[in-house]
Prior knowledge:
Structural class: alpha/beta
Strand content: 5-15%
Low-confidence stretches: 336-340
Largest sheet: 6 strands, parallel
Number of domains: 3
Helix content: 40-55%
Oligomer: single chain
Amino acid sequence: MELAFTPRRIAATFVAVGLTLLAGTLGFRHTLGEAWGDAFYRSVITASLFGLDSRPQGRDAEALTLILVFAGVAIFGYIGALIVEAITRGVVTGAIAERRRRRSIEHLRDHYVICGYGRVGRQIAVEFAEAGVPFVVLDFNADAIEEAREKGLLYVEGNGTEDEDLEAAGLSRARGLVASSDSDADNLYITLSARDARPELFIVARAAYPDAAKKLRLAGADRVVQPYSTAGKEMAKLVLKPQVAAFLDVASATGGPDLRFEEIEVADSSAHVGKSIKEIDISGRTGALVIALRKRDGTFDTTPQPDAVLGPGDVMISVGTKEELGALEELFAPGETLGV
């Protein structure tokens, strides 16, 4: 759609104004015998619709005056139309985009709500986007909302502590919620509100201090993350146990620092149900490593041996690159019929 104020339209407007004033100056100079400055002044006053300096003498001068008046009306009418078009188009386009965004949110199912789009929330959004996980950002900060809009994310401008805003983000249809506000108090209220509305909802909350972490668990958070504490522990490990970090860099078949952790469920219809890790040759076929098993009854096998048998409903905690974990997901996709 063509914009209202294009260079061509602006240039055409200036040309029309210039030609009108030139014609008026020449006409008044010829019909009234006025000096160039007086003729130009009369042209500007007449064409700009500010009024007449004095009534011109002679029919030719009067006719020229009327022509300049009509030309001025046409030019200013055109400029006014461009301004109205620009304003109207902006309002209409914004309304259409707003309605489309709301409809997209209304159609979401099994998505995640990110309450707080600060530094932590933005990184969470990046991870969700890379994993292809649907999500909605909920924040009241103007800068955060503007960044979410520029990145084309689904967002709701509001506060996660308000039930209406949580519902606008599709909380009743969501799979989980992340309380990632910079404020521990806000995260506490967000967790309480979400847990009250959805008792079964999976909630992960951010906490800056241990006391806040304890209260968030009491409020109903399933998991609580303390970024500062976690960062401190990781930095200490890099100093105290550098070989552990070196091992993680080369632990997968392709190596590199881009290791990820993933949980993959063994579907009932998988062709590998009842087979051992060694029999399936998971590491050889995918490059990923199974570092833990969560059995269907909720117990954990934290050091699964190669002869560990995978049953229906078991969840493999695996580590590898994005490509390796993708290959592992394909290997255990429901109805998988690949041979071993």
